[in-house]
Design goal:
The chain has helices at about 1-10, 35-45, 100-110; strands at about 15-20, 25, 65-70, 70-75, 80-85, 120-125, 130-135, 145-155, 155-160, 170-175, 180, 190-195, 210-215. The chain is an alpha+beta fold. It has one domain (about 15-215): Alpha-ketoglutarate-dependent dioxygenase AlkB-like (Jelly Rolls, Sandwich), CATH 2.60.120. The strands form three sheets. The protein has a seven-stranded antiparallel β-sheet with strand order 1-2-11-8-13-6-3, with helices on one face. A four-stranded antiparallel β-sheet has the order 7-12-9-10, with no helix packed on it. Bound molecules: N-[(3-hydroxypyridin-2-yl)carbonyl]glycine and fe (iii) ion (FE).
């Protein structure tokens, strides 16, 4: 019977992949949360819809985004920043769903960061072709807290560089359910996402959703 089961199992793979001294990929960590988290995305997007923001340089992002939690990340011609109010609705960003907060805290703990309590959750939506160019996350007040990044839907290739834009980048494949946690000495590493291929996902179709949790305030 054991042998039978093994025939149908995925090849044994370490669910944890170290990306740096204080950065780790937790493969499949979010899978037990997906059923609860998916409807919560719709609740958030019903209050603060996904939109295409403009960068300070004047480019419209190919990734659509929204936020939940006390603070939301925004960009416009004036710069990148966190706001308590959604500039499109004039209302506070939607409350962070409890399942999101639980996932973020537990993923951080699994990566060695205890008591992570995010006040900001950026929700990114990628369609085929969407990409995120190399950047650092440096709009947060305190670099002491880690960042927890959850991938759902279509696979993506995450680019993980060093502290300088010109440092070489590792290509990290991210699948539905994967979580990346980074902080400490890795907190300011450049990173990005390669243009998405159209490889429809059983649950989400031709899109990728990424949650990025932070302690921003
Ligand atoms: C994304 N993620 O995976 C974009 N930032 O769609 C990020 O920009 C990111 O994954 C900081 C930490 C982890 C991330
Ligand atoms: Fe980022």
């Amino acid at each position: 019977m054991m042998e039978m089961l093994e025939l149908f199992e995925a090849p044994a793979q370490d669910p944890r992949q170290r990306l740096g001294p204080a950065a780790v990929l937790l493969r499949g960590f979010a899978l037990p949360y997906v059923r609860e988290a998916m409807p919560a995305i719709d609740v958030v997007a019903a209050q603060s819809p996904f939109r295409y923001m403009v960068t300070p340089g004047g480019f419209t992002m190919s990734v659509a985004l929204t936020n939940c939690g006390a603070l939301g990340w925004t960009t416009d011609r004036r710069g990148y920043r966190y706001t308590a109010v959604d500039p499109d609705t004039g209302k506070p960003w939607p409350t962070m769903p409890e399942v999101f907060a639980r996932l973020a805290t537990q993923a951080a703990a699994a990566a060695g960061f205890d008591d992570f309590q995010p006040d900001a959750c950026l929700v990114n939506r990628y369609a085929p072709g969407a990409r995120l160019s190399l950047h650092q996350d440096k709009n947060e007040r305190d670099y002491g807290a880690p960042i927890v990044s959850v991938s759902l839907g279509m696979p993506a290739t995450f680019l993980f560089g060093g502290p300088a834009r010109t440092d070489p980048t590792a290509k990290v494949p991210l699948q539905h359910g994967d979580v990346v946690v980074w902080g400490g000495v890795d907190r300011l590493r450049y990173h990005g996402v390669l243009p998405l291929k159209d490889e429809p996902h059983a649950l989400l179709g031709s899109q990728r959703i990424n949650f990025t949790f932070r302690k921003a305030g």
